[in-house]
Design goal:
Blueprint (H helix, E strand, L loop, with lengths): L9 H12 L5 H8 L3 H14 L1 H4 L10 H12 L5 H8 L4 H12 L13
GO molecular function, one term: sequence-specific DNA binding
Family: Belongs to the IS150/IS1296 orfA family.
Organism: Oceanobacillus indicireducens
């Protein structure tokens, strides 16, 4: 399985984030200009604020998560302690969709396993 590639260049993502952070343009306006959801723009801003330009670069490898971290993040979210975005920020999860997958596994009774590319 390959990682999905962004249709926006790193420079475009940086420009969008800076326009939002500097208060020059609203998140809604940027989202319309770039034909993405507002949550995507907010995610770019969060990643930039956490890791600078490196946070906006496309990952070349899959991020690995332990089963304990996954379970903690899911339980944190399900307990109502934070939103999807807040939970992703707190546990350094790459995206809301990753967390949603874990929540679906957890709530359907499936075992949540560590992320690994290694074969037994």
């Amino acid at each position: 399985m390959s990682k999905r590639r962004s249709k926006h260049t790193l420079d475009e993502r940086i420009e969008a984030v800076l326009r939002v952070i500097e208060g020059r343009t609203s998140v809604s306006t940027i989202a319309k200009e770039y034909s993405v959801d507002r949550t995507t723009i907010n995610l770019w801003v969060s990643k930039y604020e956490a890791d600078g330009v490196d946070g906006l670069k496309e990952a070349r490898i899959w991020k690995k998560y332990s089963s304990e971290l996954k379970r903690e993040a899911v339980e944190f979210y399900l307990s109502g302690e934070g939103s999807l975005r807040m939970t992703c920020e707190k546990f350094n999860i790459s995206s809301n969709s990753v967390l949603r997958q874990w929540i679906n596994q957890y709530t359907s009774g499936k075992e949540i396993k560590s992320t690994s590319k290694e074969k037994p």
